[in-house]
Write a structure and sequence with these properties.
alpha+beta; globular
């Protein structure tokens, strides 16, 4: 692991242990207005995993985002060791900032054991080598956007993203509510499965809620569109590596009452379904304002 942005992300998910069940995490400003939801999700999973023994691996997580996170302040994660049974363990995690809970999370862990197995097939899409990397908007477009948005779009992030059908997020067309994106970490990391699961939880927040905007010709990048994650669920099915290519296949079955629902599946390049995710989020279209006023 030699790339600095990858090392920074791994450090972000490696929490400081204050007590047996108490952890502290820092935040990273990646250009979002508040703490990136995937960061809190990955850190909460990291905290929970550190309290589970006997080689039990996480198989499901369910979380609610209660308040926007402050990028400038650390986040305290309190882990409740809810249950350690014969085969399963359950952990509940509360993320706290400024004395208030901003996020609650439950995760279930299980011993590896044999059983029935089936999966959906991976969508037929070009391989990542045949897809162009995602590119930032042209400079003349970027300069008209709020400063935070410019930082988000121009950053060199730890993940390489290759959408199968790229969309102009500044002037988005109306499209059916589904998309596929190849993604991978841009550098190799340690083999620990717990690290790869925390990294995938982090990455699962990319593109997910955005898929709900496709039929409406709007996007998070527009200053009059307000979007925020309300909840997030994820299921881990089979082993994987985040530093190898994964196909993120997403769809949005419904949007209503200022909320949208999105679902996603992660496949290895040889078609193995390794994880699934779902999220409901807030989507509000506000009166138009001058983008310069948001700077």
């Amino acid at each position: 692991m030699s790339h600095p942005v990858v090392a920074e992300l791994v450090a972000l998910l490696t929490l400081e242990r204050l007590e047996d069940n108490l952890f502290r995490g820092q935040s990273r400003d990646i250009g979002t207005k508040y703490v990136f939801g995937g960061q809190v999700l990955g850190q909460a999973l990291s905290a929970a995993q550190q309290t589970v023994e006997d080689a039990r691996a996480v198989h499901s997580i369910h979380a609610y985002f209660l308040r926007a996170g402050d990028i400038e302040a650390p986040i305290i994660y309190h882990v409740d060791r809810t249950r350690d049974g014969h085969s399963f363990s359950v952990r509940r995690v509360t993320a706290i900032q400024h004395g208030q809970p901003i996020f609650v999370f439950a995760a279930s862990f299980q011993h590896d054991e044999p059983g029935v197995s089936h999966q959906f097939h991976m969508p037929e899409v070009p391989m990542p080598e045949d897809v162009e990397p995602n590119i930032s908007p042209a400079p003349e477009v970027m300069e008209k956007l709020p400063a935070k948005m410019q930082r988000w779009l121009s950053r060199m992030g730890p993940f390489e993203m290759r959408p199968i059908y790229p969309r102009d997020e500044v002037k988005p067309p109306k499209r059916p509510p589904y998309q596929q994106v190849w993604l991978r970490l841009i550098d190799k990391v340690d083999d620990a499965p717990e690290l790869h699961r925390a990294l995938l939880a982090y990455a699962s927040d990319f593109y997910l809620l955005g898929t709900t905007t496709f039929p409406h010709g709007i996007s998070y990048y527009q200053p009059n569109v307000q979007m925020a994650s309300l909840d997030h669920a994820m299921w881990f099915h089979r082993p994987f590596r985040v530093d190898d290519w994964l196909l993120y296949s997403l769809d949005s079955p419904t949007a209503q009452n200022a909320r949208g629902l999105a679902r996603g599946q992660f496949f290895t390049r040889d078609g193995i379904l390794v994880a699934s995710t779902a999220q409901e989020g807030l989507i509000r279209v506000l009166p138009e304002t001058d983008p310069k006023e948001a700077k």
